[in-house]
Batch of 4 targets.
Target 1
Amino acid sequence: MVSATDGKEALEQLHAGPVPDIVLMDMMMPEMDGYESIAKMRQDPRFANLPIIAVTAKAMMGDREKCIQAGASDYISKPVDVDQLLSLLRVWLYDRAFR
């Protein structure tokens, strides 16, 4: 597991290490938010099919669509329902394993 405090650090860590199986992306981060971070990740061919689950506390109308348009694979709102998160992880990790 790798963690980062902001989008800039997340991108640095992604480029420095092996490609992870999945990313949980907080959308409200300092310096570079999740929307910009995801968009930059998707520009790199290594991350084109990487599952990214957007996690946001700002669950407003249209947020899911905005996250998907930015390049997120899926979306979950805070407070995170652990069962829902585990279900999303199973779906996306299974899909990645059989691609």
Target 2
Amino acid sequence: MAGRFRAFLPVVVDVETGGFNARTDALLEIAAVLIEPTEDGSFARGEDWRYHVQPFPGANCDPASLEVNGIDPWHPLRPALPERDALQRIFREVRTAVRRHGCTRAILVGHNSFFDLNFLNAAVERCGIKRNPFHPFSSLDTATLGAVAYGQTVLSRIVEAAGLEWDSSSAHSAGYDARITADVFCTIVNQFRDIYESRQG
């Protein structure tokens, strides 16, 4: 794993939010999925984690965004964690995986990954977290990979082009979106396995 991605460990991250502005809008859900090597040298989706997140004090929650993701941030039965707690739980697991694979740090994989990375970085800054295992500005984007591999940039269309099954009723949940994005990432990367191995001599 360390040799395949320049000592970076790819970890799929998806967030659901209260809007598009990482500085002002709430982080409401976060999910992370490990990418694991298999015995035959390909990659597959590994362990995953998903947490509901409490809006930070003063956070904006745009009704239009809440309508899309179906989240009620103030529902009394919603098992939400403070931002710092949710991030630290994921970061502990990611740091363990980074060490296990002999990598130097994690790199975020996402669909339109700049969005997820911006919200992750903003939450890290708000919480004063010093040990962020993710690279602060580099990421791997499945929208770009989908355009190269299939001529598609919309996640549902990439999933279908890759021969995977898309469940529209589960979309816009951080857990589902992260898992299906991980499957897309592995499917595309595995297509380049022979090219990569031939260049390694």
Target 3
Amino acid sequence: MHKAGIADEIRERIRRGGVFDGLIPCETAHIVIDLQNGFMGKGQVMEVPMARTIVPNVNRISAALRAAGGSVVFTQHTVDDEAIRTWPIFFEHFCGRKRRTSYIEAFTAGSQGHALWPELDVAHEDLVILKSRFGAFVPGSSDLHVRLQERGIDTLIISGTLSHVCCDATARDAMMMNYKVFFITDANATTTDAEHGATLTGLASAFCDVRDTQSILGLIATA
């Protein structure tokens, strides 16, 4: 797993007890971001090797929250014709021409790359949400906000990949939509320690309560 890499002044703030005192499980959802074959499998177009190491922690959080009466949500990064048409800035400038075709094929619904990683524990009551942008809360990206509000959710636990892209984007928007957000240091992963550490520092400074898996399990257990 990544070294946490949080800036010293932010780390000191976390040591003082975090942002939130606790959580109410039935009002909490564990949002598992994009742990799909296209990001997880060896040799895949967007392989994030470190993401394979966080799966046990992701499963532990999901199991604990389910048992306490909370919700678990899996998002799947999804490319379709509408996404390509309405998001040309990404597909034409950031995706890269050489990788574009492979990327689209990998994350088209129904493809092997689009499927959730088989080592994830997914229960029948969990939600699976398709999203067409990095952030799940961007208008038009998904119906995540509506589905969470239907369940009375006001607190989110964020895990998944990539820390500094989809996980970061979802966490920031969630806080600005007035969700309490926990971002888990050892249940998120990206391509380098530097990118992961910068993400944790930025989120801890103004957006999220940044904790490790053991800490969030403790909050769930004592709720």
Target 4
Amino acid sequence: MTPVESSLVELFARDPREPGWLADARLEALARFRARGLPTSRDEDWRFTSLAPLAPVVLERTRPADAEDGAAPVAALLARAPGGGGPRLVFVDGRLRPELSAADGLPAGAVVASLAQALRETPALVKPHLGRLARPEEHAFVAANAALMADGGFVHLPAGATLDAPIVLVFLASGARPALSSPRTLVVAGEGARASVAEVFLGTDGVYLTNAVTELVLGEGAEVEHVRLQDESRRAFHVGVVVAEQQAKASLAAHALSLGGRLSRSELRTRLVGEQASVAANGLYMADGERLVDNFSWVEHAVPRCSTTETYKGVLDGHSRGVFSGRIRVMPGAQKTVAYQMNSNLLLSDDAIVDTKPQLEIFADDVKCGHGGTVGQLDEAALFYLRSRGLPAAEARGLLIYAFAAEMVDLVRAGSLRAAARDLVQARLPAGARLLEAA
């Protein structure tokens, strides 16, 4: 085993206060991880992404004192996180900070709480769903998360519940030590429920691993917007796996904005199991220097008359590398499926690399499916036009890059989440401070 794999195994500890079913699930997940180990480039789904930079890292446990010692940096991170006036839970180094959190104004029967609290107080709401979609036997990072998760978010929306303000789950990393954070989030939306849920990952400078797993259970006719904003330390490692299941007429809009991390991977896996379900998967990824950012999606159409739209954009500079691998599988009998994939990339240097692999696996004959990918550079004519109007070179480049990226930001429906995403993206651009002032 590599040092990081050994340290993950050594971090496992049994909690005698846990219910037996959860303790058993942890032990099984640990066994799965030990047998499987972390993926390598020999695994098809990881063919373009090497975990070699992570292999020598020895991970440690976070301690409550870490967050206390890093109070000032944590406050600065929290100032960058979206609010919006709705429920917000704040976790620092994987631990809920109640004094920074609030879950008021919920409709009757709705629950927004930490997962640890929900396991103590409402286990009947958690047990039927936790681990049902994200299965340790299918994914090494899911297995590690299932064995080592300590806390995370729990959202339960009863049938017909509607939230106008987004639910925001903020995960902050103090960067005090090479620590592991394993947040686990479970969102259960009942029949006809409507809400926006955001997971925000921010970190101070440091080497650490965030291994996040999210399960989304959408009942018939539920409408959920799920937004992941990831702007971790430039030396950190981040793996985020979102697994969803959608019943009839359920609608999922999933946005993944991957901006930080030395090596990051964002995954979306969803099954459409009820007719007329739909998913819109949107992603924006940005990298520079020697950083690598990977996006993976897997959508299975199990029944007829469902639709998928995937749109991912990447902005790559320096010697960075971007990866997009998207797979849409149309199962036998899933007639009248409509599915499209598009991946567009903007390369800002001659040394940046992108690997794009949109895929369709179709086992039905009455479908409308397509995919495509583009790789290009900044339009020199447009750049010359802006320079001729008096804009400095850095601002002109920043405006053109943002014009390319803004399509993905503007797809976020919740206004406060869209504004936060815009600010994080613009801060990554040339002359970003000036662009923020102009906005």
